[in-house]
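**Protein of interest**
===
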Amino acid sequence: MSKILVTGAAGFIGFHLCRRLLADGKVVTGLDNLNDYYDVALKEARLEQLQTQPNFSFTKLDLADRQGMAELFVREKPELVVHLAAQAGVRHSLQNPHAYVDSNLVGFVNVLEGCRHHSVNHLVYASSSSVYGANQKIPFAVTDNVDQPVSLYAATKRANELMAHTYSHLYGLPTTGLRFFTVYGPWGRPDMAYFSFTKAILAGEPIKVFNHGQMRRDFTYIDDVIEGLVRVLGHAPHPESVAPHRLYNIGNHNPVNLGDFIAILEQCLGKTAEKVFLPMQPGDVPETYADVTDLMADVGFSPTTPLAVGLDKFTSWYRRFYG
């Protein structure tokens, strides 16, 4: 029975992944520092759900704690690692750059070192569509040049890809980076637009629409992300290759205009949004669009959940959870 370490287990994607792995009969060790970047009560509520499972154990630990991380690997001896913990958010990186260095760079080295010294069979880690930065070519393909990040968050995620490649090359550690595209769904992140829009619309408050609504996003439903992630986890790059490192886009490969997205959300909520149109935020990009050819070819899967279906599931959950 595989023993799997999931970092960021109380986070949005981490929680859903742990649930899926436990349902599949795996033994899961969850790690999270439960920081207050967003509502800790939501993280604790996710964790509560996981802690009812007999095959789940939890460690509260900061990735940047080098000794703590080394001890965790000695104690738990994971065969597989899914590294999802990170300081997230493009806009927050403008205000608090050091949080990104500590979590996304220092923390990532600690994960790589743990995997290297304990002969982990496969490390799958979260990258982001934000690495495409100022890329003008649409759709975004993993073969595109990604040397023009437009936020520190994006720069740290690109750095993770390069660091993983180095460890793969030097130590034969199989690593796979997943560039996630605007993941949404039940138990989601309150700092994401779909979540904050829902909260504001239900409260009768205006929503901020950046770049005057001239934005397109490749919204990807959480269940699709988890299916892709689980398949990739079981498909490690060949350890005998020069650098057993792969990158995949996980996106819906169907970008939606922000205006259409808001209209679907209004329909799900049965309420009309009051909109405040604002200029583009620093660090943001006008469009994201995933080319998932490699994901399809290698693991036979690509996301398919329509936005209307996913948002309906999210808003139903939101109303239940927040009453």
